[in-house]
Design a protein that fits this description.
Blueprint: E1 2-4, E2 8-12, E3 32-33, E4 38-44, H1 50-58, E5 63-64, E6 66-71, H2 75-85, E7 90-95, E8 98-100, H3 104-110, E9 120-129, E10 134-143, H4 144-150, H5 161-170, E11 174-185, H6 190-199, H7 208-219, H8 226-231, H9 233-244, H10 247-258
Parallel strand pairs: 3-5, 4-6, 4-7, 9-11
Antiparallel strand pairs: 1-2, 2-6, 7-10, 8-11, 9-10
């Protein structure tokens, strides 16, 4: 492990992981080394879900890569730290409330050989929102050299993705969307989710009182256990992708056939 400044902790992984529900075991001898190709950055401000999110990244199957943890920085500064410290061709940004499917990173790696990859600045994937029982935009895979040219800008709601997509397209680069649901957007308590929504600046936008009411009513206090959300993520996500017949589902099916 190494420390970059006071806020960045680089961690080389991984622990072996055995997939029981899906029947897709890890074969350590076939681990793909992604160092120099794809790095993962986890951004955290101390949310209760952080250790679960970190563990879901550390326990990725079939691949090994570098993990860097960015702690206690404002959102724009945290993302700019990625641009300053990334050493790979691609990077994935993971928030501390995202619990990844064990084959999430292996799937992302499988997409990097597409002919159009050279002009794709950003690939966007879905998450399953436990509290709302629906999908949302979540996992982001960036091409580092293009992200450096495009840069990150923050909007009035404290978010950067809409600006990044608009700036990428204006510079002639592509933004791809994938319907695959690669992780869970975990929830813990209404109070914590409201706290971080305000930290992002969402309370400065329109209809905040309505959004706050929805958060309180849909999440509740401790209604969803982090232990349960983490433990059930693989089966839940595999079932959701199977129902939608996503590319990620077909990727998992092909893995099954190879075993």
């Amino acid at each position: 492990d190494h420390l970059i400044g006071l806020n960045l902790l680089g961690v080389a992984c991984h622990k072996p992981h055995w997939l029981k529900p899906s029947g897709l075991p890890e074969r350590a001898s076939n681990m793909i080394d992604l160092n120099g190709l794809l790095d993962v950055f986890i951004i955290t401000n101390g949310r209760a879900s952080f250790n679960y999110a970190k563990r879901s990244v550390e326990e990725q199957s079939g691949v090994k890569f570098k993990i860097t943890i960015i702690k206690d920085l404002p959102w724009l500064e945290a993302n700019n730290n990625i641009l300053e410290n990334c050493k790979s061709k691609y990077f994935v940004r993971v928030d501390d409330d995202m619990f990844l499917h064990p084959y999430c990173i292996a799937y992302l790696n499988s997409e990097l050989n597409e002919p159009s990859s050279a002009t794709v600045a950003l690939r966007s994937y879905r998450l399953w929102e436990t509290a709302k029982n629906q999908t949302c935009t979540g996992i982001k895979l960036y091409q580092f050299s293009l992200a450096q040219k495009i840069k990150f800008r923050i909007n009035e709601l404290g978010k950067i993705d809409k600006n990044f997509k608009a700036d990428a397209c204006s510079k002639g680069y592509n933004v791809n969307k994938d319907t695959g649901i690669l992780g869970i957007h975990a929830c813990y308590s209404a109070a914590e989710n409201i706290k971080y929504a305000k930290m992002r600046g969402e309370h400065k936008g329109g209809r905040w009182e309505y959004k706050e009411k929805i958060l309180k009513s849909s999440i509740g206090e401790g209604k969803y256990s982090l232990d349960n959300q983490f433990a059930t993520r693989e089966k839940l996500l595999s079932d959701k992708n199977r129902h939608l017949n996503t590319n990620f589902h077909r990727f998992l099916e092909n893995l099954n056939k190879k075993i």
